[in-house]
Design goal:
- By secondary structure, this protein is of the alpha/beta class.
- The protein folds into 2 domains: 58 residues, Signal recognition particle alu RNA binding heterodimer, srp9/1, CATH 3.30.720.120; 67 residues, 2,3-Dihydroxybiphenyl 1,2-Dioxygenase, domain 1.
- 20% of the residues lie in helices and 29% in strands.
- The strands form 2 sheets. A 4-stranded mixed β-sheet has the order 4-7-6-5, with helices on one face. A 3-stranded mixed β-sheet has the order 1-3-2, covered by helices on one side.
- A hairpin with a 5-residue loop joins β6 and β7.
- The longest helix has 13 residues.
- It is globular, with a radius of gyration of 15 Å.
């Protein structure tokens, strides 16, 4: 049996705003409502991020997306156009730089609830 991650709940103060922002940056579909109380972002055919409103404190989570070189360029351009600060190190300062030390390109950004989003072209985890 092959095991695949199907969906993940993402805690948020304002689920619709958070879902809309991520979907817009990634260039993927989303909905203001889904099954249950969620605002889903349809990352691909097999993965949905279900944004759900939580009270304070919001637990911070790290999410990483592996993308093609062309998608990396397009998403980074949308991040820049939205004026979102980004960085080359997961917990580093905002340096508006892209990390190339791991055989591909990596960039990180945070969203208002504190989640850290990572985008890379080559996985360093395997």
């Amino acid at each position: 049996m092959e095991i695949e991650l199907d969906h993940v709940m993402v805690p948020a103060r304002r689920k619709v705003d958070a879902a809309r922002t991520l979907a817009t940056l990634l260039g993927v579909p989303w909905s203001e409502s889904g099954v249950g109380p969620f605002a889903p972002v349809f990352v691909n055919e097999g993965l949905t991020l279900d944004f759900d409103e939580w009270p304070e404190p919001i637990p911070r989570v790290h999410f990483c997306f592996r993308v093609s070189e062309a998608d990396f360029d397009a998403i980074l351009e949308r991040i820049r156009a939205a004026g979102i600060p980004y960085r080359s190190v997961v917990h580093g300062p905002v340096d508006f730089a892209v990390d190339t030390a791991h055989g591909g390109r990596i960039v990180y950004w945070s969203e208002p609830d504190g989640h850290v989003w990572e985008m890379l072209t080559e996985s360093y985890a395997r």
